[in-house]
UniProtKB/TrEMBL annotation:
It comes from Pseudomonas fildesensis. Transmembrane segments: none annotated. The lineage of its organism: Bacteria, Pseudomonadati, Pseudomonadota, Gammaproteobacteria, Pseudomonadales. This is Isochorismatase. Coiled coil: none annotated. Residues 5-145 form the Isochorismatase-like domain. GO terms for molecular function: hydrolase activity. Keywords: Hydrolase. InterPro entries: Isochorismatase-like_dom (IPR000868), Isochorismatase-like_hydrls (IPR050272), Isochorismatase-like_sf (IPR036380). CDD domains: nicotinamidase_related. SUPFAM superfamilies: Isochorismatase-like hydrolases.
Length: 181
């Protein structure tokens, strides 16, 4: 089965200098660099997803802002496509599926941000479209969540999403496990 790598929203906004810094983003990006390099070295097509908002009054991922740019260490090279999305799900109102199909991709590996939002949405959508999905948990990051006065630490939010993936949506591996297979 031909594999494709989907790199979701590794944008400047999520770095400590951005407006929405994620817990563990530096480690996730360092691991993403390894995975992207491996994909390029082995001929696995890489698809970059970039969230962009052009809504009036938007404060995050504003079209044309530095925060909306893909982080330089994981920037696209050559003809690697960049799919710009306006919604949480990278398949919604984009040509991601068409690009995967055109490249002959039959299974996908997902890395990026945020685990509990855009990673969750793309993994579930891909599984619903019958793609076998692998998520590399240590090449993803999220942040602390708050619900009705209860704070859920980022590590717990991340673990809960990864556990849900393993239960019914995806294979979840570490970058080391993936690269050594």
């Amino acid at each position: 089965m031909k594999r494709g790598l989907v790199v979701v929203d590794l944008q400047n906004e999520y770095l400590p200098i951005g407006k929405l810094p994620l817990t563990g983003i530096e480690g996730a990006v360092a691991n993403a660099v390894r995975v992207i390099s491996h994909a390029r070295d082995t001929g696995i097509p890489v698809f970059h997803i970039r969230h962009e908002s052009d809504n009036e009054g938007a404060t995050l991922f504003v079209k044309g802002s530095a925060g909306a740019e893909i982080q330089p260490t994981v920037a696209p090279e050559g003809r690697e496509p960049v799919i710009v999305k306006k919604h949480i799900n990278a398949f919604r109102e984009t040509d991601l599926k068409q690009q995967l199909d055109a490249a002959g991709v039959q299974e996908i590996v997902v890395i990026g941000a945020m685990s509990h939002m855009c990673i969750d949405a793309v993994v579930r959508a891909a599984a619903d479209m019958s793609y076998p999905v692998t998520v590399l948990h240590d090449a993803c990051a999220t942040l602390d969540l708050t619900f009705r006065g209860v704070t859920v630490p980022a590590a717990h939010a991340h673990a809960a999403i990864m556990a849900a993936f393993e239960f019914g949506y995806a294979s979840v591996k570490s970058v080391d496990e993936y690269l050594s297979a």
